[in-house]
Amino acid sequence: MKLTDQQLELAAKQVTKAMGNAPFSEEEQTFSPEFEKKVARMLKKQRHGTSLRAFARSAAAIVLALVMLGGSFLLLNTEARAFTLSWYRKVIGNRYSYTFTGDHEGEPLPQFEITALPEGYVLYQDSESDQTRLLRYRKPVEGKSTIIPLSLEYSWMQDGFATMLLEDNLHTLTCTQVTVNGCPADLYRSVSNRNSIRNHYLLWMDEESGIFFYLSTRLSAEETIAIAESIHPLK
Amino acid sequence: MLVYLQALSSEQERATFEALYLRYRSLMLSVARRFLPEPQDAEDAVHQAFLSILKNFNKISAIDCPETRAFVVIIVERKALDILRSRQKTVPLEEMERGVEIPLPGDSGLADALAKLPARYRQVLLLRFAYGYTTRELAKEFGMNQGSVQKLIWRAKEALEKLYEEGGAET
């Protein structure tokens, strides 16, 4: 017998339907960091086309290590991602990964300033390298030799990664989604199990300007967000 | 691995591709691992499968539907078997060609016979007749020239006809 194309189409569609409903495992799988980078490049490429120059740029990686002391991490073992046009976040095990796409090579980084810096904080470092600006402040504690740090870092949302590694046996960590002047933001609250020091790490992406901000404080969540919302371009 | 991708033409396509990636990547890795015990190999298969999907993105009409789920399984199965073939030259042909286990559609006829074909034959017929791959597209997917693809389709049809006539679908 000779099968017609019509018969074959009908049979093929029945098979794909059966395959599509087959109980293949959909259990969440963990991919290697190399794979994640490779796919981020692929996603970037399909956003921005095929130029080799752009591909080379994607090799550049921004790594922000908040706490990198190793050990097991129990915070999250599911993957949660947020997609926007120019970034996405992934949470796998002990790794928070922010992947960006953007093309600002050669563009000067805009200057921003905190316009509502809490009382007592003094700027002691203002540096810029690799299109990232770092502002460090500190507040002396009266009668003690310790200081309370506060830092702001920002950079272009450039093709690549910013990864945070967080450890568990010294810190308890929670993450909340908030907004900063309408921009999506992640507020991480880290509490040291050893000395009860509480840090807030606020990360947000201003898609309009293409800037990724990272603010670290030892203040409350409300105060941290208020500082973030007071950050404006330097006039 | 440096790859060259065609750009998707619209924001909607880009968003769809990203959603597709998130929806199916674990499933695809799970399928690839059935054939490839080395994690690196399995990830390579998934990566190559996504590249292939990107190149044939017009075959996808919706993300969350059986047709798309089957499509990504077919593509990653293909890539995984290609890698297996290149890694283990001594692996028995029948084992390599078994592919993923597919539930029979249950028509006790042509569809069941098609589901039972060796993986390579099943793949080429499904891509051709369920997803409308042209000979040229199949040639790229299977890494062969168009003449060889036509021969492959012919052999696959012949095997299907034989299986169907022998009542192989009813076993």
Describe this structure in words.
- The complex is a heterodimer of chains A (235) and B (171).
- By secondary structure, chain A is α+β, with helices and mostly antiparallel strands.
- Chain A has helices at 5-20, 33-48, 52-58, 221-229, and strands at residues 62-63, 82-83, 87-92, 95-100, 112-114, 122-129, 132-140, 147-156, 160-165, 171-180, 183-192, 198-206, 211-217, 231-233.
- Chain A contains 4 helices and 14 strands.
- Chain A is elongated, with a radius of gyration of 23 Å.
- Chain A starts with a helix and ends with a strand.
- In chain B, helix 6 packs across helix 8.
- With 171 residues, chain B is an all-alpha fold.
- Chain B starts with 10 loop residues before the first helix and ends in a 6-residue tail after the last helix.
- Chain B has 8 helices and no strands.
- Helix content of chain B is 66%, strand content 0%.
- Chain B has helices at residues 11-35, 39-55, 66-87, 93-96, 110-115, 119-129, 135-142, 146-165.
- The chains are: A alpha+beta (235), B mainly alpha (171).
- The interface between A and B is large, with 46 and 65 residues.
